[in-house]
Amino acid sequence: MTDVKMTVNGQPVLGQVEGRTLLVDFLRTDLKLTGTHVGCDTSQCGACLVHVNGAAVKACTMFAFEADGAEVTTIEGMAEPDGSLSRIQQAFQDHHGLQCGFCTPGMVMSAAALLKETPKPTEAEVRAYLEGNICRCTGYHNIIKAIMAASGQDVSAAVA
Amino acid sequence: MYAFEIERPTTIAEAVAALAADEAQALGGGQTLIPTLKQRLAAPETLVSLTAIPEMQGLCMSDEGALCVGAATTHARVAAEAKAFPALAALAGHIGDPAVRNRGTLGGSLANNDPSACYPAAVLGTGATIKTNAREIAADDYFQGMFATALEEGEIITEVRFPVPTTASYQKFLQPASRFALVGVFVAQYPTGVRVAVTGASEEGVFRWAEAEAALSADFGVEALAGLAVSPDGMIADLHGTSEYRAHLIGVLTKRAVAAAI
C-alpha cells in the first residue's frame, strides 16, 4: 500500500492505495464519492469522467497513485457553494438532457471541460467533444442542447 | 488486475534504474496499458510511470529546425502547441477522444506500436528521430512489425524529433468504435523528396509506400498517383474491412492527403 495525497473538490484528502487501485475506485470506495460512475470500465463510455489538474480524464483508466498531488474535481464538486445547481447542471435539467441519468456525471464533467476551452462552441464542436461519452437513453440531442444553452447560446429554435 | 507496485520517478535516470528491476514495465498515459492490465494480458511486478518526469514533457524547436516533442507529452498538448507543424497537431487532436488525449502520450503510442495507431504514421512519414535514454533511433529502423519495435528491454523513449516538412497532411479513415485508424496515410513533402507512411493497413504495422513516394517526389500532385495501387497481400482483414478494402483506402487517402497538403 502506498500513501496518496490529493485535493478533491477543494478538500485535502489522504489515503492508502494499492498500485492497481484505479482513481475511480479510490473516489467511490475510499472517499465515498459515488457520483462518479463506472459504466464500461474499458475507457469507452466516459461515465467516470473527472477533472485532474483541470483536464478531463477517465478515472477508470488512471491509477489513484498517478493522481498523487493532483487537484481532482468530481461531479460532487460542480454545484455552487450554496448547494444550488451549476449553470451546466441546471441546463441539463431545463433541457431534459438526461433520462436514466447514469451517464450524466460524465456528461456534465465533459461539458465543463469543453466550455472552459471553448466558451461558445458550435453544435459540431459539442458533438465532437462528447465522442468519448456514451448515452444509451437520450440520443444526445437534449444533451447537446443543454450544453449549448449552458454556454449562453439561444437554443429555442434547436430541433430536439 | 494482478497486483503490482507502482513507482513515479521524476528523472530519466531514476526511471531507467527502476526499469532495471525484474518484471518492471514502463507506464505512459496508460490508455492502452491499463485496459490491457485489466484483461490480465500483462502481469508486471512493477509499473514505472513516466508521466512525472519534467525533462520528458513539452515541445521545442531544435537548432536544426526539427520539432522536438518530449515522449511523455500528451496528445492534447501536442494538438495545442505543435503550431510549427500543423499536420502533426491535427493528427494528435484526432487520436481517441478528449479524455484519452489528456492522458495518452507520444512515447506510449510509439513504444506500443499498435498497427492502427496514428503517431507511427507521423514518425515514419517524417523520418523522425526517436531519442531514448541510451541512443537515437531512425524511424526507418524503429518500427519492426505489429507491436514490435527496436527498443531494448528497459529502454525508454525520451523525445522524438520531427523534421518539419514544407507541407504535410494526415488523412485518417476513422474506425468509429475504437477511434483508431481503419487506415491512415501521412504524406510529407521535404526539399529532398516526399515520404508516405501508411498505418492501419498492413499486418506488419506502419510502412512506407515507396511507389507513391517516388511518384510524388517527381511531381507533387494528385495526378501523379494515377494508376498506382497497393497489393492487398499482407493487408489486415477483419470484420471492419477486407484486405482489398484497406488496400483501396490507401490509394484514396494518399490522394486526399496530397490534395489537402497542396
From TrEMBL, chain A:
EC class of the enzyme, as a word: oxidoreductase
Residues passing through the membrane, by range: none
GO molecular function, one term: anaerobic carbon-monoxide dehydrogenase activity
Record EC number: 1.2.7.4
Keyword Iron-sulfur assigned: yes
One Pfam family matching this protein: Fer2_2
Name this polypeptide is given: Carbon monoxide dehydrogenase small chain
Provenance organism: Flavimaricola marinus
Gene (name only): coxS
TrEMBL record, chain B:
Gene3D superfamilies per UniProt: 3.30.465.10, CO dehydrogenase flavoprotein, C-terminal domain, Uridine Diphospho-n-acetylenolpyruvylglucosamine Reductase, domain 2
Matches recorded under InterPro entries: CO_DH_flav_C, CO_DH_flav_C_dom_sf, Diverse_Substr_Oxidored, FAD-bd_PCMH, FAD-bd_PCMH-like_sf, FAD-bd_PCMH_sub1, FAD-bd_PCMH_sub2, Mopterin_DH_FAD-bd
Oxidoreductase listed as a keyword: yes
PROSITE patterns the UniProt entry points to: FAD_PCMH (PS51387)
Broad class of enzyme this protein falls into: oxidoreductase
Pfam families (alphabetical): FAD_binding_5
An MF annotation (GO) of this entry: FAD binding
Keywords attached to this entry: FAD, Flavoprotein, Oxidoreductase
Domain FAD-binding PCMH-type: 1-167
EC number: 1.2.7.4
The keyword Ubl conjugation is annotated on this UniProt entry: no
Protein name: Carbon monoxide dehydrogenase medium chain
Species per Swiss-Prot/TrEMBL record: Flavimaricola marinus
Gene that encodes the chain: coxM
